[in-house]
Design brief:
The chain is an alpha/beta fold. It has helices at 2-14, 25-39, 49-54, 68-73, 98-105, 123-127, and strands spanning 18-22, 43-45, 62-63, 76-80, 83-85, 90-94, 109-115, 119-120, 138-141, 146-148, 154-156, 163-169. The two termini are 16 Å apart.
């Protein structure tokens, strides 16, 4: 697992993502709280298994009522990912639920929670786990949003978050 994590971290950081590892769900919650204090502004946390298991922390400026308007105004969006791919530094999420898409695409900063046990070597590994009859909308996220014009001028954050913070949680807590 450490080799997979090192590979994921190297590739994700190569495309400007930030990768962190927390030993427990409580550490992950504290990390998110610290990040929210650091960046200020409002935040939205999409419903997910992490919240069902850990409860909804009450942080200033944090809401769980995900709406299009709220996501467009929020500085931070927090959601849980289904899988992470070590060979590309890519996150994979079943984004059938619109709230997951809103918090991962509209705020300036996206915090992506992922259970460390959900780290897979490559795309072939995840394809066997996807159930098309249940996952109507898959998203693959590799780094913050970026685009370039015909003159190859790179711009970060035009079509999505300008900052991607990935938080791995050990022990299957996410």
């Amino acid at each position: 697992m450490d080799n997979l994590f090192a590979s994921f971290k190297e590739r994700a950081e190569a495309v400007s993502a930030e990768v962190h590892r927390c030993g427990t769900a409580a550490e992950a919650r504290d990390f998110v709280h610290g990040l929210l204090r650091e960046v200020g502004g409002t935040a939205l946390w999409a419903p997910c298994a992490f919240l069902e298991a850990q409860g909804r922390p009450a942080f200033p400026g944090l809401s769980y009522d995900v709406t299009r308007e709220g996501a467009a105004q929020a500085k931070v969006g927090i959601s849980q990912m289904e899988w992470a791919l070590a060979d590309t530094g890519t996150l994979v999420v079943d984004a059938t639920e619109v709230g997951s898409r809103l918090v991962s695409t509209l705020p300036q900063i996206h915090v992506a929670l992922i259970g460390a046990d959900r780290l897979l070597p490559d795309m072939a590994s995840v394809l066997g786990r996807i159930k098309p009859e249940k996952a109507c909308y898959l998203s693959m996220i590799t780094g913050p949003s970026r685009t370039a014009d015909i003159e190859r001028v790179l711009t970060i954050g035009v079509h999505g978050p300008e900052r991607l913070v990935i938080v791995f949680v050990e022990g299957g807590a996410a």
